[in-house]
Amino acid sequence: MTDRPALSVRNLSVSYDTPEGRLRALRGVSFDVQKGEIAGLVGESGCGKSTLMQTILGLLGGAAAIESGEIWLGDTDLLTLNRRQMRRLLGDRLSAVFQDPMKSLNPVLTIGRQMTDIQFRRKASRADKRARAIEMLDKVQIPDPAKRLDQYPHEFSGGMRQRVAIAMALMAEPDLLIADEPTTALDATLEIRTIELLRELQEEIGCAVLFITHHLGVVAELCDRINIMYAGELVEHGGTRAIFDAPQHPYTELLFACDPAQIKERSRALPTIPGTVPGLIDVPPGCVFAPRCPKRFAPCDSLHPRPVASGGSDLVLCHLRDPKVPA
Amino acid sequence: MTLPAEPDVTPPRPLKKPRAKGSFARLVSDPLGALGLILIAITVLGACFAFLSPWEPNALNPLDRFQGPSAAHWLGTDNLGRDLLTRVLYGAQIALTLSIGATAVALVIGVAAGLIAGYGPRWLDNLLLLIFDALKSVPTVMLALVLVTITGPSVWAVLLVVVIINAPAYGRMARTQTLAVRNAEFIDAERALGASGAWIAIRHVLPNILGPILIVAAMDIPVVVGIEAGMSFLGLGVRPPTPSWGSILFDGFSYIRESPWPVIAGGLPIIITTLGFTFLGEALRDTFDPKIAGRK
Amino acid sequence: MWLYFLKRLGLAVIVVLIVIAVLFVMTYAIPGDPARVALGPRASEELVAEFRERIGLDRPILVQMGNFYLSLFQGDLGRDAISGEPVLRILLSQFPDTLYLVLGAVIVAVVPGILLGIMAARHRGSLLDRVTSVISVSVMSVPAFVIAIYLLLVFSIQLGWFPAIGAGEGFWDKLHRLVLPSLALGLAWIGYVARILRASILEEMNESHVRTARAFGLPENRIMYDYVLRIAILPTITVLGIGIGHMLSGAVFAEIVFARPGIGKLVFDAIISRNYPLVTGAVLLTTVFFVFVNLLADLLIAWLDPRVRHDLAG
To answer: Is residue C43 part of a domain?
Structure first.
């Protein structure tokens, strides 16, 4: 059990029941997050990041169906657990920080109340739980934590609120923390501070982190490995350095080209990838990226690419990199 | 950097597919709407064909008092031997004309006040808002009671009460919309072309608010039917011997130990009509304007 | 919090002042001797003379209005036009029975209303949800006095389960006689409360803080009662505040139908006998009560929702 990854997603497919038909939001997604590692998950909005997160946390809505796959947290397959067993894990071995710090805390309960509530599993006195909450607030550098505990979320700034959310998520020292664009709503300075804080705490606690974002700069800064998603599929993954040096998938290349850090001159119009993500109700038989791909060739429209290792990447989903496909 | 934003595929709860059907057909396909229309049709037809009854609504027949339903008197007779069904049908004429008429008057006055509040000077706007709020703070029946002490009981008293109770809500809706339209750019353009403020208000605001306000008014009709019946019950509305559902109910109530039929006959049409208009209003709202859901 | 309280209180006072002004203007707007109009045709000469003196009918209208306000603030609502007793004393002697009735109606509305609302929200789309929705729409629209008479007919006259007349003596008797009138007033509001609550629970359930709570594995019951209901109940409180005004209106009918003493019955009798000072006084009392209840509802909301305190105090 010791060398198992903290999180291992195997061949996960999820679909939504919509009036127009079955929307296949995730198709055959597989990846690992190793213990003590920070893994990035990058993609445009609508690529299935949120669905993936909700699936891992067991928070999918009623219209969603898990068609196949396994999600291993250490030695537990989360998809075989019932609601009760899943709830026992959440906030204990597995926890999460969400995108919008304005809305992700309950507005009518004090921070202290919310931070003690989530320790409901511990058989400790109220004072003990409070002390633990103060300790965590201190760790995320909230000044005067004992006093702050009795305040409501609206009395905190956006950055502080997100740090409170991080403190809550790490309180039980989980095996895995899923962070869903936790810094997107913050301005640049705060973003850097929050990320540094997250990294420090992660090292101290030693948990694994799955960091979901569409901000490539953050990934380069923070993550050991990165996973690129496109339209419900994992199109490339590998070490951060390797992928940044030599992206193997045309989509990854275009993503990097769109990153303003790579643009020399300030221009008003940011470069974008032409075209839109295909509808996921009738998924085309070939490569999903083909319609937007500048490098498409003969097999792309009809044949779905198979995962291959290429360059520094452990997995690429592209005919160009597949030695068995003739160029 | 943020990537080009695409609509999130995480689909929300399944939405109803918009159906390409006529609005009336849509209304009728809603069982509640259909039921509402049937109930209203019963009342309207009853009112229209009241004259077919072999009895006079006010013909006294003391020998036949407190009869139960029979072939001659379908709903029985009251304490003066009058045929209850006939009285109820004539009562429907009064209830329907009065409630629809009063709602229409309230609508016109409310919308006019709203337009004035929205287009007029700031102080007038504030004053009208304050009046709307103050009127809302007096319990309905108390308001009616005071008004009637001044005007005396009559049909007009009912009309006045309905206007005072309902017009502020329409006024608020009209005001909000007027303010929105007032700030719109195309209005500036028109004003530049020399159109007057009042004309602009009427041309642009009315079409925008008419739909929602009519739905709200339809949902208010059962309330108005209730006000008319209630005031007549208290002897503050329609004067006897004119048959009104409220006065039929009050007469029946006075003799409730003698016979249950006058009370049953007086209450039933009130229930049928209020249910009919409420169901119709709900269906109208669900079909045309989900935004104002939740309003009573 | 205090600033907020003062602001709301100020607004409430302004509304009451306007209502008083309207009452004043109304009695003076009608042609005829104002004293006669204000007191009614059956008032004694002695009372008319006293009224003239109190208001100062020969003085300018604004002074008269000022006097009118002044005497009201001293608790002087005038005298009963027939018995000559102070109006305030008569009103206060009848007010408790109306209060019990409204309280009973609120309990009838709130307890089942909240339970139904929670159940309907939890089992959205279920049979229970749909039945609740149709029934609430139906009962909501039928006027309270029709319900009152039918209840009287079925449960008092036909079945004889409940006495038909009076407020009763002693706690259990009073309670027994309160059942039908409270039902008549509250019934319509069960569905309304359930509907509002259901809608706001469902709305709140979609908020991301609920997702956060779930992501920490908090038990579903605690999320519902501590995290969701605490917020979802707020619109219901506002609606109930307004609802109490409607119930006061309905109380007039319920008191007549069930022959109960109370403000409603008092006013009705006063109108029949054209005892206007009593009518004016009763309207004022119920209006003040209604405004006060709404103020209380707003304060309750501010107490429950720190965001309201925060936004409105500034």
So the answer is: yes
In this structure, the answer to whether residues C69 and C118 fall within a common structural domain is no
Closest among C212, C233, C215, C208 to C118, alpha carbons compared:
C233
What is the residue extent of each domain of chain B?
77-294
Q: How many domains does chain C have?
A: 2
Domain span at residue C149?
Answer: 94-313
Chain B neighbours, 3+ Cβ pairs < 8 A: A, C
Shared domain check, C295 and C146: yes
Q: Look up the ipTM and state it.
A: 0.83
Does one domain contain both C137 and C242?
yes
* CATH code for position C123: 1.10.3720.10
Shared-domain flag, residues C68 and C174? no
Q: Go through B61-72 and write b for each residue having 16 or more CB atoms within 10 A of its CB, e for each that does not.
A: beebbbbeeeee
Q: How far apart are the first and last CA of chain C?
A: 10
CA distance B146 to B143: 5
Q: Which residue of B has its CA nearest to C160?
A: B257
Q: Provide the 10 A C-beta neighbour count for residue C284.
A: 22
Residues C157 and C29 both lie in one domain: no
Give the fold, CATH level 3, of B77-294: MetI-like fold (1.10.3720)
Residue C205, domain member (yes or no):
yes
C32: left (phi over 0), alpha (psi -120 to 50) or beta: left
- pTM listed for this prediction: 0.80
Q: B214-236, pLDDT tens digit by residue? A: 888 888 888 888 888 888 888 88
Reading across the β-sheet that carries A225-230, which strands appear in turn? A94-97, A176-180, A208-213, A38-42, A225-230, A233-239, A313-316, A308-310
Separation between Cα atoms, residue A231 and residue B47, nearest integer Å: 63
Task: Report the C-alpha dihedral over residues B54, B59, B63, B69, rounded to 10 degrees.
Answer: 50
Q: C234 with C277, same domain? A: yes
State whether C157 and C194 are in the same domain. yes
**pLDDT tens, A102-142?**
788 998 899 999 999 999 888 888 899 999 999 999 988 88
**Interatomic CA distance for residues C218 and A260, integer angstroms:** 41
Contact C214, C256 (CB under 8 A): no
Residues 6+ apart with CB under 8 A from B288: B23, B211, B215
Judge: C215–A96 Cβ closer than 8 Å, yes or no.
yes
Q: Taking the alpha carbons of C202, C206, C207, C208 in that order, is the dihedral positive or negative?
A: positive
Of B83, B264, B269, residue with least CA distance to C152 = B264
Does any domain span residue C14? yes
For B13, the closest chain A residue by CA position comes to A63
In angstroms, how far is CA B122 from the centroid of its own chain?
Answer: 31
Nearest by Cα to C290 from B134, B126, B226, B144: B134
Which chain A residue has its CA at the smallest distance from B17's CA? A19
Tell whether B11 lies on the interface with A, counting CB pairs under 8 A: yes
Main-chain dihedrals φ then ψ at residue B181, nearest 5 degrees: -70, -35
d(CA A283, CA A291): 12
**Do C99 and C55 reside in the same domain of the chain?**
no
User: What is the spatial distance between Cα A20 and Cα A184, in angstroms, rounded to a whole number?
Assistant: 32
Q: Using an 8 Å Cβ cutoff, are A172 and A204 in contact?
A: no
Contacts of A273 in chain B (CB under 8 A): 4
Asked if C152 reaches chain B (Cβ–Cβ under 8 Å), the answer is yes
Phi and psi torsions of C81, nearest 5°: -70, -20
* DSSP bridge pairs for A87: none
Structural domain contains residue C84 = no
Tens-place pLDDT, residues B263-291? 888 888 888 888 888 888 888 877 775 55
C276-304 and C229-257 helices, crossing angle to 10°: 160
